[in-house]
């Protein structure tokens, strides 16, 4: 079988703290890329100078030179621009801030064939403290919960053909919060042929503060409603809290009982991923915290829709 020619794409915006680690993982793949394209959305920090300096450092190695473009706009605008510039039909995609496993590209390419449109890679958390470890079950699909038939590809880790990208209508540039999820849903809608390779791993570090975590949950929920995506679990979340509210208005005993049950449920479903004494505090708190952020984002998105 002839070697598949690939183009790697990514977008960046003020990534001076993470870009060098990202590039290092990119250039030490077991399978190299025929082309690397990075689109900068308008960085005002040292991102571009770090990329330039990094290229100088690896100039003596047999690797593809990074093609850097500037394109104002959100990530969807940058990705579409990068794909349009790409010379090759097969596109590999990840996000700045991630760390690619050394065999990431090799695994994705090994799962592709003429009968496949998209190869979805997997991703895992890179954590530095117990707080981040407790966040992971709330922001990533844990490996034991992955359903290969329903798993949606994310731009952190995926391979796709230019042809299917065009058929799906490209990345939706009108959405700035969850454009890759909308794109993945469109892939499912047009019956794109998607396979999952759990070994195509990308590491991703979750937010390290409550403020940034709230913003992330809020943005995703807001973006879903803006895109007319109403997840069943989010709808159920609203009914769950409405039910809690009605019960607590009947008797305060129910309030304390519900709090206890909810906390036990949060521990039961996620403790096995962390296994640390502090989870007895963190996991129940993060469950309620994430619920509030999702409800707030969904309501804000709905209000915005009604105002149109």
Question: What labels would you give this structure?
Answer:
single chain; 308 residues; alpha/beta; Spore Coat Polysaccharide Biosynthesis Protein SpsA, Chain A; 8-stranded mixed sheet; 8 strands; 50% helix; globular
What is the count of β-strands?
8
Intertermini distance: 53 Å
| Shape label | globular
Helix content: 40-55%
CATH topology of the largest domain: Spore Coat Polysaccharide Biosynthesis Protein SpsA, Chain A
User: What is the H/E order?
Assistant: EHEHEHEEHEHEHHEHHHH
- Assign the CATH superfamily of the largest domain: Spore Coat Polysaccharide Biosynthesis Protein SpsA, Chain A
Structure description:
By secondary structure, the protein is α/β, with parallel strands linked by helices. It contains eleven helices and eight strands. Helices cover 50% and strands 16% of the residues. The chain is globular.
Topology:
Elements: E1 6-12, H1 19-27, E2 35-40, H2 47-57, E3 66-70, H3 75-85, E4 90-93, E5 98-100, H4 104-111, E6 118-125, H5 130-139, E7 158-161, H6 162-167, H7 179-189, E8 194-204, H8 210-226, H9 232-250, H10 252-274, H11 279-307
Parallel strand pairs: 1-2, 1-4, 2-3, 6-8
Antiparallel strand pairs: 4-7, 5-8, 6-7
Helix pairs in contact: 5-10, 5-11, 8-11, 9-10, 10-11
Short description:
The chain is α/β, with parallel strands linked by helices and about 300 residues long. The chain has eleven helices and eight strands. About 50% of the residues lie in helices and about 15% in strands.
